[in-house]
Amino acid sequence: MKGFFKGIGAYRRVFGMIAKYRLWSYLLIPGLIGMLIGGGILAGAWTASDDLGSIIISWYPTEWWGSTGLATVGDVLGGVLVALLGLLLFKYILLVAVSPFMSLLSEKIESKITGEPSPAFSFNVLLQQSGRALRLNLRNIFREVILTVILSILSLSGVLAPITTPLLFVISAYYAGFGILDYTMERRLNYKNSIHFVHDSRGLTLGIGTVFMLILLIPFAGFFFAPTFATIASVKPVLDKMDGL
């Protein structure tokens, strides 16, 4: 629990660090990328809801009573299902898409904290980091989808819904935190050791990911600020944890 609250508390320093280290420029491009991806997924959810709604109600004969009302319910339900799937995919698409910028941001903050100069920019290193982010997030989305499907099936009984619903959020926040922490881990740990580090820092990972997810749920503004704020918040706790190993 200590690590969890440390992860949440790290966000209190975000605005101070942005002002102190003049990081405002790092908000723009990742923010615009987030807005574009988020807006695209919302538009896709709106468009696809009709088609999915039609599939949902296709078993109900149109000449039966209530078919018109059921069609409306089907459209709404279809939109909700597509939006939930879109949010799951959006998180990972966003973490991969902004990874080059978040890696540079994390590197700059680490340089300011430690007083050591940042390494010279290398396009090859940037490509390697982007490839690692893609590999890591593909691994995480595979695991999250499996766990989400299992919990969703269990929740159908209704009895387990009060338990499975919070667990779905916890799982989503944990894997989001995993991807965010890796923007700092990637410079110090290899892929395998990064996984071990996160397993040993579950509380911190969940704390960082929880606030990230809550920010992400803020319409439009969350798309813009969530990845940058989470990255800024995560650097020092990760460095502190590594120094303590």
Please, could you describe this protein's structure?
Helices cover 82% and strands 0% of the residues. The protein has one domain. The chain has 10 helices and no strands. It has helices at residues 2-9, 14-20, 25-56, 67-97, 99-114, 123-155, 161-185, 191-200, 202-216, 221-244. It is mainly alpha-helical and 245 residues long. Helix 2 (14-20) packs across helix 10 (221-244), helix 5 packs across helix 10 and helix 6 (123-155) runs antiparallel to helix 7 (161-185).
Summarize the structure.
With 245 residues, the chain is an all-alpha fold. The chain has helices spanning 2-9, 14-20, 25-56, 67-97, 99-114, 123-155, 161-185, 191-200, 202-216, 221-244.
- How many DSSP H or I helices? 10
Main β-sheet: number of strands, strand sense, barrel status?
none
Radius of gyration: 20 Å
Overall spatial form = globular
Q: Which percent band covers the strand fraction?
A: under 5%
Give the % helix: over 70%
| pLDDT averaged residue by residue | 82
Task: Tell how many strands the DSSP assignment holds.
Answer: 0
- Distance between the first and last residues' Cα: 18 Å
- Assembly type of the chains comes to single chain
Poorly predicted regions are: 63-67
How many domains, as an integer? 1
Look at the helices and sheets and give the structural class.
mainly alpha
Order of helices and strands: HHHHHHHHHH
